[in-house]
Specification:
single chain; Rossmann fold; three-stranded parallel beta sheet; two-stranded parallel sheet; 9 helices; 51% helix; HAD_sf; HAD-like_sf; CbbY-like; hydrolase activity
């Protein structure tokens, strides 16, 4: 028996509709913690024939993209000051996370603060730019369908329109940078025609 998560209702039809209308579908796994695992789950559900129509952008694809080579490439040397600044940002982010957990524990609350480091945001931006590059579509003509704050922040940073599809973990989160917030796929929620309207607005 498979232990993979089920696809959200309407996702398969959404992808089919996109492919029928010639809308490139790019799945970004590079900035997700469990991205590769999710892709395996989706491949299992959709089948290899449908997945052949979808571009999957993982860490290696980001590194090979023009933007990835320029910004993340090993050939780009950073000076000592940049490296120290990067390490300082990591330390501050880790300390913010530790304090948030400690306060939440004392108050017996669950907190969700954005401790996305600038390095993390840089990785999201690199993944988004690589996705646009592999789709051969200008960034401003793409639409990110996301469920995470980091995805929305990255899209906003580079001027890529973004639509949030809520999940149980983001039901109460606010996404001020998103062009639209939906509860699911198909019907009254996210469809390709609605995506085109959002993109044009």
């Amino acid at each position: 028996m498979s232990k993979t998560l089920p696809l959200r209702p309407g996702v398969e039809e959404f992808i089919d509709e996109a492919c029928e209308e010639g809308v490139p579908v790019v799945m970004l796994t590079a900035y997700c913690k469990s991205g590769e695992k999710q892709v395996r789950s989706i491949i299992e559900k959709l089948g290899k024939d449908k997945m052949a129509k979808i571009k999957i952008i993982g860490i290696e694809e980001v590194k090979r993209s023009s933007y990835g080579q320029l910004v993340l490439g090993e050939g780009v040397a950073s000076d000592l000051g940049e490296q120290l600044a990067k390490e300082a940002r990591k330390a501050v982010s880790a300390e913010e996370q530790r304090i948030a957990k400690e306060v939440a524990s004392i108050l017996k609350l669950t907190v969700d603060i954005d401790t996305t480091s600038s390095e993390g945001l840089q990785n999201v931006v690199a993944a988004l730019r690589a996705g646009a590059e592999y789709a051969d579509v200008p960034v401003h003509n793409c639409v990110l369908v996301s469920g995470s704050l980091s995805g929305v922040a990255g899209a906003e940073r580079i001027g890529m329109p973004c639509v949030v599809v809520r999940s149980s973990s983001t039901a109460r989160a606010e996404f001020p940078g998103a062009k639209a917030i939906m509860d699911g796929f198909g019907g009254a929620d996210l469809t390709i025609s609605r995506l085109r309207q959002i993109q044009g607005s």
